[in-house]
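Troubleshooting log. The previous structure file for this entry was overwritten by mistake, so regenerating from the original sequence record. Sequence copied from the archived sheet and checked twice against the printout by T.R.
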Amino acid sequence: MLQFRRLTAAAVAIGALVWGSGAALADGFATPWQLGMQEPATEVMESINSFHNGLLWTITFISGFVLALLVIVMVRFNARANPTPSRTTHNTLIEVIWTVVPVLILAVIAIFSFKLLFLELQIPPADLTVKATGKQWYWTYSYPDNGKFEFDSLMVPDDKIDTAKGQIRLLSVDNEMVVPVNKIVRVETIGNEVIHSFALPAFGVRIDAIPGRLNETWFKATREGTYYGQCSELCGRNHAFMPIAIKVVSEQAFKEWVDAANKRPDWKAASAERPAPAALAQAAESSIR
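Regenerated output below.
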């Protein structure tokens, strides 16, 4: 009985911790000891979050039900409580139930799962297209709908991080991808030399950037702010130092940024073969040590 009370107390404590974890959700990046997913910033991520939470409650109920059956069997049908066991070997009704019910549960899960997959994969007419090229080990962005400029996005080294400006170690970059709020953005990805992966948790986006193949995904950010992700493919030595930062701004601010970007001479002819600056390599090496 004492053990049961201890297990109950532990379960209550864990449940309270999980229930209260929502307050730990950060805007655009994860925080230490955070439980649960990042706060959704797109319709797709909201659907992913809802599907995850619904599935979590479903499997919790199933696990609890099975545990309750096991406890009943151990208490009621052990050798001491039931010295003369039943000789029953089959029960048609029970066998039908434990076959049909799991099939129905899986069918319902599949319906919601396919609905979510279609939402992710069917790209609606886009308001803006951004091409993201994965390189070793940084990203290059171009905006074919808004000019011929192209720029590199590299991680800010540790010795240049400015926390007063809200920069985050290993996530902040020198040049963010800038997009307007409440606009459908199509992202085309490709790898320059190896396979990379373009992933933004708050947007519910993850797609591989493969050399010689153009993949595409989409998102529609519903809130302004800066959102962070990382390359999610093991792409080489500095894989852990290849962050993604997307800055969501108002439509007017985006137009002003595009006008300024088209006037920058250093963004007019970004070389696809240009290696990452030595500062990035040094920062990565020091972080690895």
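The chain has five helices and ten strands. Archived copy saved in two places this time.
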